[in-house]
Amino acid sequence: MNFPKDSIYASPIGEVGAFKFDETVAGVFPDMIQRSVPGYSAIISAIGLLAGRFAREHSVCYDLGCSLGAATLSMRHQIEAENCRIIAVDNSEAMVTRFQQALQKDHAPVAVDVQCRDIREVAIENASVVVLNFTLQFIPLEDRFCLLQKIYQGLLPGGILILSEKLKFDDDRQQELQTQMHHAFKKAQGYSDLEVSQKRTALENVLIPETFAQHQNRLREVGFSSAEVWFQYFNFASIIALK
Fold this sequence. Notes:
Layout: H1 23-36, H2 40-54, E1 60-64, H3 70-76, E2 85-90, H4 93-103, E3 112-116, E4 127-133, H5 141-154, E5 155-166, H6 172-188, H7 193-203, H8 212-222, E6 226-233, E7 236-242
Parallel strand pairs: 1-2, 1-4, 2-3, 4-5
Antiparallel strand pairs: 5-7, 6-7
Helix pairs in contact: 2-3
């Protein structure tokens, strides 16, 4: 399927504003995310497979920060547990509206409830699967522990959290290398130096990455018995946390 091309930062912008998931971004998001996040398609596919493995009868799967619903749809087509439903949440009205429209064309049997809300205000209950797919990095640092603690408490025993994030590195050489390789990846996808530079400026102080050790320590602090990277491509990784 062809999606509109992301050219938001293709022309010089006098003063680059903070990145927002508004109508402009929602209109090109499928192209943007594929060309910006290495391994995105593989992660989305695996989220569906993991949901198929961990979703339980009469439970709830949550997609927190669902954007246009890629992870939700992947889960929806893999879940076979009876009376299992998905709650997909995003605080961008533009994203939610477009996802609801797309959902009308998808006829998989698993029920999906799409909500336009702040994920910090969502109650997590009777959950077998929770997905934070490149979402936590946009949550203020001071709110991340409480959000993960709420997720842990709402997960059923044996439940899973799938946490995908952009990582930073304590070692300066690794940080420089991983950043350079991410930029090389984006340029290989057709982005110009100007686009890479202006997008980076827009995301500064909006997307706050952490090291894997910080994520792992926090996950263990809130109660998860295990938290390990299952996928990494340069400075983008996905973690499986088990209750």
